Amino acid sequence: MTARTETEEVERANTTFYEAMERGDFDTLSGLWLEGDDGISCVHPGWPVLNGRGDVLRSYALIMANTEYIQFFLTDVSVAVRSDTAVVTCTENILSGGPAEENGDLGPLVGQLVVATNVFRRTSEGWKMWAHHGSPVLAETDEEPDDETPA
Protein backbone atom coordinates (compact mmCIF):
# COMPACT_ATOMS: atom_id res chain seq x y z
CA MET A 1 0.00 0.00 0.00
CA THR A 2 1.42 3.39 -0.94
CA ALA A 3 1.75 6.29 1.46
CA ARG A 4 -0.66 8.32 -0.67
CA THR A 5 -3.32 5.61 -0.41
CA GLU A 6 -2.83 5.33 3.37
CA THR A 7 -3.21 9.08 3.73
CA GLU A 8 -6.37 9.03 1.63
CA GLU A 9 -7.81 6.18 3.72
CA VAL A 10 -7.16 8.10 6.94
CA GLU A 11 -8.67 11.27 5.45
CA ARG A 12 -11.73 9.22 4.46
CA ALA A 13 -12.09 7.80 8.00
CA ASN A 14 -11.73 11.30 9.46
CA THR A 15 -14.35 12.71 7.07
CA THR A 16 -16.71 9.82 7.85
CA PHE A 17 -16.39 10.63 11.57
CA TYR A 18 -17.56 14.23 11.05
CA GLU A 19 -20.29 13.25 8.56
CA ALA A 20 -21.67 10.73 11.07
CA MET A 21 -21.80 13.50 13.70
CA GLU A 22 -23.66 15.78 11.28
CA ARG A 23 -26.25 13.09 10.51
CA GLY A 24 -26.56 11.98 14.13
CA ASP A 25 -25.58 8.50 12.95
CA PHE A 26 -24.51 6.87 16.20
CA ASP A 27 -24.05 3.41 14.65
CA THR A 28 -21.55 4.66 12.08
CA LEU A 29 -19.77 6.80 14.66
CA SER A 30 -19.53 3.83 17.06
CA GLY A 31 -18.10 1.66 14.31
CA LEU A 32 -15.31 4.17 13.73
CA TRP A 33 -13.89 3.76 17.25
CA LEU A 34 -11.53 0.96 18.23
CA GLU A 35 -13.09 -2.02 19.98
CA GLY A 36 -12.11 -2.61 23.60
CA ASP A 37 -10.71 -0.02 25.99
CA ASP A 38 -7.08 -0.07 24.90
CA GLY A 39 -6.23 3.54 25.71
CA ILE A 40 -9.29 5.02 23.99
CA SER A 41 -9.75 8.63 25.06
CA CYS A 42 -11.70 11.73 24.14
CA VAL A 43 -11.63 15.36 25.21
CA HIS A 44 -14.54 17.51 24.07
CA PRO A 45 -14.04 21.29 24.43
CA GLY A 46 -14.59 22.20 28.07
CA TRP A 47 -15.04 18.59 29.22
CA PRO A 48 -12.73 16.47 31.36
CA VAL A 49 -10.88 13.63 29.64
CA LEU A 50 -13.02 10.57 28.98
CA ASN A 51 -11.30 7.20 29.03
CA GLY A 52 -12.65 3.94 27.67
CA ARG A 53 -14.93 3.15 24.77
CA GLY A 54 -18.11 3.13 26.90
CA ASP A 55 -17.61 6.63 28.34
CA VAL A 56 -16.50 8.03 24.99
CA LEU A 57 -19.50 6.63 23.11
CA ARG A 58 -21.91 7.74 25.85
CA SER A 59 -20.58 11.28 25.41
CA TYR A 60 -21.36 11.22 21.69
CA ALA A 61 -24.84 9.82 22.35
CA LEU A 62 -25.43 12.69 24.78
CA ILE A 63 -24.18 15.29 22.32
CA MET A 64 -26.31 13.87 19.50
CA ALA A 65 -29.41 13.76 21.72
CA ASN A 66 -29.02 17.42 22.68
CA THR A 67 -27.92 18.92 19.36
CA GLU A 68 -30.67 19.59 16.85
CA TYR A 69 -28.28 20.67 14.09
CA ILE A 70 -24.51 20.54 13.64
CA GLN A 71 -22.29 21.09 10.63
CA PHE A 72 -18.50 20.91 10.43
CA PHE A 73 -16.38 22.80 7.94
CA LEU A 74 -12.87 21.38 8.31
CA THR A 75 -9.87 23.54 7.48
CA ASP A 76 -6.11 23.22 8.00
CA VAL A 77 -6.35 19.43 7.73
CA SER A 78 -3.01 17.66 8.12
CA VAL A 79 -2.46 13.88 8.09
CA ALA A 80 0.65 12.03 9.24
CA VAL A 81 0.86 8.25 8.93
CA ARG A 82 3.56 6.25 10.70
CA SER A 83 3.30 2.47 10.56
CA ASP A 84 -0.10 1.54 12.07
CA THR A 85 -0.84 4.94 13.62
CA ALA A 86 -2.13 8.12 11.98
CA VAL A 87 -2.57 11.60 13.42
CA VAL A 88 -4.98 14.10 11.89
CA THR A 89 -4.98 17.72 12.99
CA CYS A 90 -7.60 20.15 11.79
CA THR A 91 -9.69 23.16 12.63
CA GLU A 92 -13.37 22.40 13.13
CA ASN A 93 -15.44 25.38 12.02
CA ILE A 94 -18.69 24.36 13.71
CA LEU A 95 -22.19 25.68 13.12
CA SER A 96 -24.72 24.23 15.56
CA GLY A 97 -28.20 24.78 16.85
CA GLY A 98 -29.79 23.74 20.11
CA PRO A 99 -33.14 22.14 20.73
CA ALA A 100 -36.12 23.45 18.77
CA GLU A 101 -38.11 26.37 20.08
CA GLU A 102 -41.63 25.82 21.41
CA ASN A 103 -43.08 26.76 18.00
CA GLY A 104 -40.94 24.05 16.34
CA ASP A 105 -38.36 26.40 14.80
CA LEU A 106 -34.70 25.49 15.09
CA GLY A 107 -33.01 27.14 18.07
CA PRO A 108 -30.43 29.86 17.49
CA LEU A 109 -27.38 28.86 15.45
CA VAL A 110 -23.99 29.29 17.07
CA GLY A 111 -20.58 29.26 15.44
CA GLN A 112 -17.47 27.93 17.15
CA LEU A 113 -13.85 27.22 16.26
CA VAL A 114 -12.21 24.12 17.69
CA VAL A 115 -8.77 22.75 16.92
CA ALA A 116 -8.77 18.97 16.96
CA THR A 117 -6.34 16.09 16.99
CA ASN A 118 -7.71 12.72 15.91
CA VAL A 119 -5.54 9.63 16.34
CA PHE A 120 -6.30 6.51 14.30
CA ARG A 121 -4.97 2.95 14.47
CA ARG A 122 -4.87 0.58 11.52
CA THR A 123 -6.96 -2.56 12.06
CA SER A 124 -8.01 -5.45 9.86
CA GLU A 125 -11.31 -3.51 9.39
CA GLY A 126 -9.55 -0.29 8.36
CA TRP A 127 -8.54 2.83 10.27
CA LYS A 128 -10.28 3.22 13.64
CA MET A 129 -10.33 6.20 15.99
CA TRP A 130 -8.15 5.77 19.05
CA ALA A 131 -8.33 9.29 20.49
CA HIS A 132 -10.02 12.62 19.82
CA HIS A 133 -9.00 15.87 21.48
CA GLY A 134 -10.86 19.10 20.74
CA SER A 135 -9.78 22.43 22.16
CA PRO A 136 -11.73 25.67 21.70
CA VAL A 137 -10.09 28.55 19.91
CA LEU A 138 -10.79 31.40 22.32
CA ALA A 139 -9.41 34.30 20.31
CA GLU A 140 -8.24 35.05 16.83
CA THR A 141 -6.07 37.93 15.84
CA ASP A 142 -4.97 39.30 12.50
CA GLU A 143 -2.55 41.70 14.15
CA GLU A 144 1.17 41.40 13.50
CA PRO A 145 3.29 40.78 16.60
CA ASP A 146 4.86 43.90 18.04
CA ASP A 147 8.60 43.96 17.23
CA GLU A 148 9.38 46.34 20.04
CA THR A 149 10.82 44.94 23.23
CA PRO A 150 9.33 46.41 26.41
CA ALA A 151 11.71 48.55 28.45
UniProtKB/TrEMBL annotation:
SUPFAM superfamilies according to UniProt: NTF2-like
Highest rank taxon of the organism: Bacteria
Record InterPro entries: NTF2-like_dom_sf, SnoaL-like
One Pfam family named in its UniProt record: SnoaL_3
Sequence ranges assigned to domain SnoaL-like in this UniProt record: 10-137
Protein name as it appears in the record: Nuclear transport factor 2 family protein
Native organism: Streptomyces hebeiensis
Taxonomic lineage of the native organism: Bacteria, Bacillati, Actinomycetota, Actinomycetes, Kitasatosporales
